[in-house]
Amino acid sequence: MSHLPRLWAFVTILAVVVALAVVGGVVFVVTRPTGSLTVAAAESGVRDLAALTPVPSPPVASPTPAPQSAEIALTPPRLLVISQATLSQQTLEDISQLKYVEKVDSFDGGAVKVSGVGLNLLAVDPSRFRTWAPKAVAEQPGVWSALAAGEFVADSSAVRRLGLALGSQYQVDGGIRLRVAASAPFGLPGVDGLVSAETGRRLGLLPGVALLVNGPQKAVATLNARVRRLLSSGAQVVTVGAGRTAAVKKPTIGRPATENATTDEATTGRQPGAVRQVAVGRPGSYLELYRRSAVACPGLSWTVLAAIGQVESSHGRNNGPSSAGAQGPMQFMPATWKTYGVDGDGDGVANIWSPYDAVPSAAGYLCANGAGQGGKKLEKAIWFYNHSWSYVAKVMSISQGYARAYP
Questions:
Q1: How many CB atoms lie within 10 A of CB 226?
Q2: Among positive and negative, which fits the CA dihedral 315, 320, 326, 328?
Q3: Element counts in the chain: helices (H) and strands (E)
């Protein structure tokens, strides 16, 4: 038996609650809206899929490179604010204008569960967050490259406490897999690690609920009191240790995945047999491509794939990259593609720009989130694809339109 990490799964608690507990029990509610998931008839028109030919499209722009290790002006955080809801722009401006405040920045945050144990995460833009890190961490490019690649960087204390194995991958229950690429002593009370902003959205972390505040060390007590007065009930303000930036250990970078996983895990990012891989070939129409790809997820209707393909790229006509960096006919983020991208046409390459690879990959991603179970599970799986209930409603409506058009 091969060695398996002690921690088996991240369990996202998105159906009802996402909690981020730093000092007390902060709870954020993330629930689907009431009522049926429908949209206006004008939004649910269907296309003639039999007449649309899938054509692989090359990228039109290069992906954003990982942040480089130029000179970094560090701004050590003095306070960490945790709110129960997104901090308003007015609140951010009011805090930034307080006497002694020199810099503020907000980030997404929330919690997942690891074998029943809460794991508190911040979702950050690496280039922005880097200035808030201790010097030894900020100067380690491997940390920021890992974040930019969509991997998980754990706080050193969490690695010790939870037994996380560097280089190992952990399956988010009903969601994505995360590789622990590095550990670093960030020194933020109660924060167990960082992921990228896009990975945070995939995990369902809440936008703009965490705030870092910089100012003179001698004014921390005054700042703490004044910031508290501007926050709503239930928000927490935590003082970050004065010695945080001094004499911290350097980050530890995990070994490449190929040294810690089987060949299949290292090349596909998933456990063998976790998602069915289906050879769809190169069908001559999108209609046939969607139908063949749905076989990857028993219980998933091809019409859902067709609806997502229409919403995301108008069946390959608008392949991006989008402003958020999503690419290809099914608009995958590159970090997600690393885990779920498959070679659907058997040419030896999982190409994010090829519909023959992207559509079956989307089927696998939806299946990993429970789409094959139908009903509310299907709706939640679509929500994982794009965290918007209006998006879910639109996809469901278009899917129903395709079901009527192609009985």
A1: 17
A2: positive
A3: 14, 13
CA dihedral 180, 185, 190, 192 (to 10 degrees): 0
Show the tokens assigned to 32: 């689907």
pLDDT at 283: 87
Alpha-carbon span 76 to 52, nearest angstrom = 54
Look up the CATH number of domain 40-62+267-405. 1.10.530
HEC per residue, 321-384: CCCCCCECCCCECHHHHHHHCCCCCCCCCCCCCCHHHHHHHHHHHHHHCCHHHCHHHHHHHHHH
The stretches in the chain having pLDDT less than 70 are 1-48, 50-52, 55-71, 114-117, 169, 171-175, 242-278
**Distance separating alpha carbons of residues 381 and 370, to the nearest angstrom:** 6
Please report the pLDDT score of residue 50 as a whole number: 66
H or E element at residue 223:
helix 220-229
Residue 117: the pLDDT is: 64
**CA–CA distance, 328 with 313 (Å, rounded to integer):** 8
Residue 67 has what DSSP assignment?
P
Domain boundaries, given as residue ranges, for the chain:
40-62+267-405, 79-259
Secondary structure letter of residue 316 according to DSSP = T
The pLDDT assigned to 71 comes to 63
**Residue in the structure block whose two tokens are 């972390």:** 205
Q: Could you tell me if 21 and 109 are in contact, meaning their C-beta atoms sit under 8 angstroms apart?
A: no
Task: State pTM to two decimals.
Answer: 0.49
Listed in sequence order, the DSSP H helices in 5-53 are none
Of all residues in the chain, the percent with pLDDT exceeding 90 is 40
Q: State how far the alpha carbon of 174 is from the alpha carbons of 9, 52, 276, in Å.
A: 10, 32, 15
| Encoded tokens for 193 | 């690690």
Round to whole Å and give the CA distance between 157 and 163.
Answer: 10
pLDDT at 4: 32
In this structure, the dihedral spanned by the alpha carbons of residues 125, 126, 128 and 133, taken in order and rounded to 10 degrees, is 130
3-state secondary structure 176-193: CEEEEEEEECCCCCCCCE
